[in-house]
Amino acid sequence: MGRYDTSIARYEEAKKVLAGGVSSNFRYHAMPAPLAIERGEGAYLWDADGNRYIDFVLGNGPAFLGHSPRPVLDAVRASLDRGQAFTTVHKAEIDLARRLCEIVPCAERVRFDVSGTQVGQVAIRLARAHTGRAKVVKFEGHYHGWADNIFASVAPGLNEAGPRDNPRVLAQSLGQPGNIRDDLIVQPYNDLAVLTDTVNARADEIAAIVLEPVACNCGVIPPEPGYLEGMRGLCDDHGIVLVFDEVITGFRVALGGAQARYGVTPDLAVFAKAAAAGFPLAVVAGRAGAMEGVTRGVAHGGTYNGVTSSIAACGASVEMLAANGGAIYGKVERDGQALMEGLREIARRRRLPLHAQGLGQIFSTTFAGDPPLLNYRDYKATDEPMRARFVQGLQDRGVRVTARGTWFMPAVLTDEDIAFVLDAADATAAAI
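RE: above sequence
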């Protein structure tokens, strides 16, 4: 019997009733088929063929605390008998909002929702209402959800992306209207000079600059020194709303997100993924002046916003992350740095262009001839077929990593897990 026989059979079964066999296009990439997962606990997943994996996908980020963290499940269970959807406000929602205002630097007000795509839309709408302008600056390779008006230039081919200092606005899906190009300006990440020229020339049109403060969707690229600070200054000078998309970095790279880690405070920020340990909850947070737009004609709704189970999950997650002065972040930083250094040592010994880059809590592996990666085009120029072979080899040896090479670090790894992963990486590198 083959390692993936049941997963392949389940996928064929799923395709008869689920369009495409999965419930998100971002799940097509699993090799040789989407894994049929039976259960998850801590850092581990088990599939229907009986294979165990150390999991660095973590649901694309939410399971930072590991799968099925007991305090979160206990809090959710305690909430269930009190009802779920009240279509009004409840005390736990107020308490959580107050706690988030304490820990997130930009948060003077918050609103709850259920997905990163949706809170991203709220932030853009608030910024446009606040400034009376229409255009939004985004960056190549940065992902802000799959809604029509922002799903652009996320993964363009280098042959169609246009000039480096003036990238084309490229829709990412069939069915998107052509007019999305009218209100988007795409820029290269980590180039303050190009951004400064663009903003100075077009400031009276620009409502918002929206970015992943760490470019997690294209190589986990940190901001260059002074980049976020310079962007903050440009926004202050021209009355532009600065929006951090912290759907990935929020609650992962620091309790207060990347804005706390780098000491640069945006006007608005959005969070999801690690906020609630896998339960559907997202947050838009920001300065009162912009956030109170919801009381002045900016529409934001949602039947499932603030349901009690998700609020309970987020509240328990935050307290687990904040315990002992946020000691969990130091542990994960050390674990991630140990893994990256171990991978670099393997690359040197095996004479492979394997490049590990990022932060302790999230990093990426690519096959790059000229690291470090500074922007999307650097990432796109790496050897994608070799990366796919590496990811597949790791999976075959019990280590699950995203297809794009991103490693979401779980907070519950042991030293034995790290040794297992590095042994699997070494065997995979040898096979390559």
